[in-house]
Structures are given as C-alpha cells and as structure tokens.
Design brief:
about 525 residues, about 5% strand, immunoglobulin/albumin-binding domain-like, mainly alpha, 19 helices
C-alpha cells in the first residue's frame, strides 16, 4: 500500500486570513495527524504492519514554516471555539448534540497532538515512523510538476527530480530509494533522470505496463525494470477502485459522513461568518449528515454505524485481496504483487472514516496469514533481484490516463511559458556561475518562482474548473515574478526591495542553489 501526500505551496504572509491556506489546515486536521495517530497506535500495539508514504517537498516546506505553524494553531483554536458554540446551539437536539461534542473533542485532541506531542514538528514524527521499520518514506518531484510536459526542455524535468531527491535526503538524512511521479505521469526516457538521481523504484499507472515494450510477462502483478535499471511497480486497478471510487467504492456508502454538508454552508451567515476566512463560506470540518442516498434529503450522521461499516469494508477488502492473489497464483504460478496506491487526502478529508478503515486493514492484515502479507517496495526488491526488463508506455492517471487532464485546451497555454522559463533559467545559471550578493539572491529567487509555476496543481485546477481563476492567477503571479527577476538580472538593475518581498513570501527551498539549472 502506498499513500501519496501533496499540497501546492500556498503562503500569504501579507493577509491575516487567506482562503487557500485553509487547504493545508484542513489536511493536517483531517488527514495527516489522524494518519500519524493510526500508525503510532499500531506501533504501540506492536502490530507488524507495512505501508509506504510519499510527501512532496512543497508539503514538507509548509509543515516546517513557522508562520503557517502558528496560523494552523490559531485555526485549531478557532475551531474549538466554534465547536463550543455548537455545543450550546445543539443542546437538547437528539440528532446533533452528540456530534457537536464529537467534533469538540476531536479538535482539542488534534491541538494537543500538534502542540504537545509533535511540538509542531510533523517532519520529526515522520522520521520516527521511518525508523520503526513499518513505514517506508518516498521522495517526489520538487513542486509536483507534471514531468511529461517538461520533457521538451529536459533540464526542467531533471531539476524537478534531482531537487526532489536532494530535498528528501536533506530532510530525512538518507537517500530515497523510491520516487512518486506526480500524477503518475511518465514518458520513455524519464527513467534515465530517475536512475541518475539514484532512484531504485517508482510507480506507474496500470496501462503503462499493459502496453509496455515488450509486454510485461505477468501483466501488472510483478515489478519490472526499465532499460536504465530503475524498477517499476504498477497500480492495481481492482484494489484501488474499491477504496478510491466514490460511486463503486467504499466511500460512497450511505452510512458514511457526507463531505459536502458542512455547517460552513448550512448555518446562518451572521452566526458562522466570524469563523470563516474573510467571512467567505467554506468548509469548517463540522458535518452533521450522512450520505443517506443520492437526494438532498440527508439523515443525521451516526458514527457508531459508520465505524461498524468501516470494519466490514476492511474485512471485505482483505477477503478480496486473498481471492485475487490466489487466482493470480493459480494462473501464473508466481507470488503476485498487488500495488494499491492512493492520495493520502482521501483518508480522513474526503472519506472521514478512511483512517479507521486503514487501521483495521493494517491491523487485521498483520495477523498470521499463510497466503499473503503487506510489504514495502524496498523489502520486496531486497528478495527479488531477477526482474524482466521492459520499456513502459507513456501514461498518467486521471481522465483517460494519457495526460488529458494536464495538457488540455483549458491549460496548454501555460507550457510555452514554462518551457521558455526553463531555457532562460539554464542560460542565466550558465552565464552567472560565480554570482554573489544581490545577483545570487535574485538568481535563487528566480529559480524558486519558476519551480512554483511548474506545479501540476495549476493546470489541474484550470481543467477541473472549480478553482481555475485562482490557478490562473497563481501561475501568472509566479511567471511574472520570474520575468521581473530575469529582466533585472540581464539588465543589471535588480530591484532589491521587491526581491526582499518575494524572498519573504515565496521562501520555499531556502538552501536552493540556482546552479542546479546549469547541469545537463
């Protein structure tokens, strides 16, 4: 099992409250700390579980940012105050009083874990998990760029991969063996950059191996090697759909909590407004209804019933894997590998009961079982050195699985700017190899702005449409910052005041050396 955790770098020191910073606060509250709690409980209970986790550098940078740490603490304190108000408002209401108390206790627990147990340092908590041997941490690209779209200017893809692996090593103190390709995007030749960055294995969509050259002899159920020597694990469609799909999978069950019915939208504006960023209606995390059915007539959420259903779904998932593995063994006479990959934010944020389901799956899956077991990618490769060599086919996940989401009429216009920026950044890095002072600062900040502009989140939002205006604004902001810095460097007329503002605001990769763009 592999969970991929990522959020785009969003930081607004000039605004006391900014709507998009809520993405981070929601994810820490609903996904990251709940998942850390699951793994800590399993370790304390001496459960011999295995799972792999990837965290992008942009997310880790936000974890480690003092401004965002303080704002997240304030966010939790505000939720606690809101939940206290809800305790008063729902008093005597048999449908919702217990739910208000549940949220009040949840927010207080998250605040205690964040400030007292983890001491605001979620990265150290991840290091402890890795040391335990139960969790394998995996690297990813620097700003989660969609790498196939960068391959026409190879330096851009090279920097995303190299900086991602270097950041992982600097953060966790060891070389990453595995790498998560953003959006599972792959084209032939990319594996060379991964191998150059000392990546031992990475993950692809199923059809990348189903259409490989030559064909993978055991379909997607055995890892293969690429011509450069890196190993590929392919996502299993069957196991993933059971968990991921809101229609066919577990999260759509009518007993589970409804994601969209949040008091941030349901309650009177005069009451809820003071607890919303800028008074704008958005999610608070307090949701009182279950999915119920496909209509708008929702029933109250009943946690006991939902948790029982999560247990049942965990049993069903494990039974299906046992049957699947036995069937594949009968067919090919091999020990098949089932690779189940998910966005981490599914667990807790989108699917409220996801952490409880995962706890049950890992706990029960670790019990004595003669037919199969959970394993990390590195553990598997340590015992299986003789792998077939194939060239995976171009692929991605998302709509139709061949880049349609990230290269589309709604967003393709961005790439001519990204490609030109990469070419110019390389030229600047080669021209000014020995830069010092303001010039060096400007070169480093130009590199930061370009890297943020390359994020796959912007074209994804443009395609999805729900935040396209924000994504377009963010992309243009960072590209314009890059152009301003570029022109100042070329003309030897750097605006040091504006440079300082950008260094304070977009302070990702503080130790970045712009000369990484001068390497071939």
């Amino acid at each position: 099992m592999v969970l991929h955790a990522h959020l785009p770098f969003v930081r607004y020191p000039e605004h006391e409250h900014h709507l998009e910073e809520q993405w981070l606060y929601e994810a820490i509250t609903e996904t990251y700390i709940p998942l850390l709690s699951v793994f800590d409980r399993l370790i304390n209970d001496k459960v011999d579980f295995r799972i792999a986790l990837s965290f992008t550098p942009t997310l880790l940078e936000m974890f480690n940012d003092a401004l965002l740490q303080e704002r997240f603490k304030n966010h939790l304190e505000q939720l606690i105050t809101l939940s206290e108000q809800e305790l008063q408002r729902t008093r005597g209401d048999r449908r919702f009083e217990a739910l208000a108390k549940m949220y009040h206790n949840k927010f207080k627990k998250i605040l205690n874990l964040y400030t007292k147990v983890y001491k605001r340092d979620l990265i150290s908590a991840l290091k402890s998990l890795a040391v335990s041997g139960h969790v394998e941490l995996i690297a990813s690209a620097a700003t989660h760029a969609y790498l196939p779209a960068l391959m026409t200017e190879p330096i851009a893809a090279h920097v995303q991969i190299r900086l991602g692996t270097e950041y992982f090593k600097n953060t966790f103190g060891e070389q990453a063996k595995g790498f998560w390709l953003p959006e599972c995007g792959y084209v032939p030749g990319m594996d060379r950059y991964l191998k150059k960055a000392e990546v031992a294995f990475f993950f692809l969509e199923s059809h990348s191996l189903l259409n490989s050259t030559p064909r993978s002899p055991y379909s997607i159920y055995a890892p293969v090697r690429t011509p450069s020597g890196a190993t590929v694990f392919a996502r299993d469609v069957e196991s993933t759909k059971q968990v991921w799909s809101s229609v066919e999978g577990y999260p759509g069950d009518f007993d589970y909590r409804d994601f969209y019915r949040d008091i941030g939208f349901d309650l009177d504006q005069n009451y809820i407004g003071p607890y919303l960023p800028g008074g704008i209606r958005t999610f608070t995390g307090m949701k009182y209804y279950r999915i119920t059915d496909t209509s708008d007539n929702k029933g109250p959420y009943i946690p006991e019933r939902a948790h029982l259903k999560a247990e049942q779904h965990a049993d069903h998932f494990l039974e299906c894997r046992a049957q699947q593995i036995q069937s594949l063994n009968n067919r090919w006479g091999i020990q098949p590998v089932i690779t189940a990959t998910f966005d981490a934010e599914l667990f807790g944020h989108w699917w409220f009961e996801g952490p409880a389901w995962l706890d049950s799956v890992l706990r029960k899956g670790a019990e004595e079982n003669s037919s199969w077991k959970f394993i990390t990618p590195s553990e598997y490769l340590a015992d299986h050195q003789r792998l077939k060599t194939v060239m995976p086919a171009p692929s991605s996940w998302g709509y139709k699985g061949h880049s349609e989401t990230w290269i589309d009429a709604s967003n393709s216009w961005i790439y001519r700017h990204v490609h030109h920026g990469a070419k110019e950044m390389k030229r600047l890095a080669v021209t000014h190899r020995q830069a010092t002072g303001h010039l060096r600062r400007a070169l480093n900040q130009a590199a930061r702005e370009l890297l943020i502009a390359q994020s796959s989140d912007w074209p994804f939002m443009m395609k999805a449409g729900n935040a396209s205006e924000f994504a377009t604004k963010k992309f243009k902001e960072h590209m314009q910052n890059f152009i301003m810095l570029h022109d100042g460097i070329v003309s030897n007329n750097i605006d040091t005041g504006q440079l300082s503002v950008l260094e304070q605001k977009n302070c990702i990769f503080r130790d970045l050396d712009y000369r990484i763009f001068s390497d071939s």
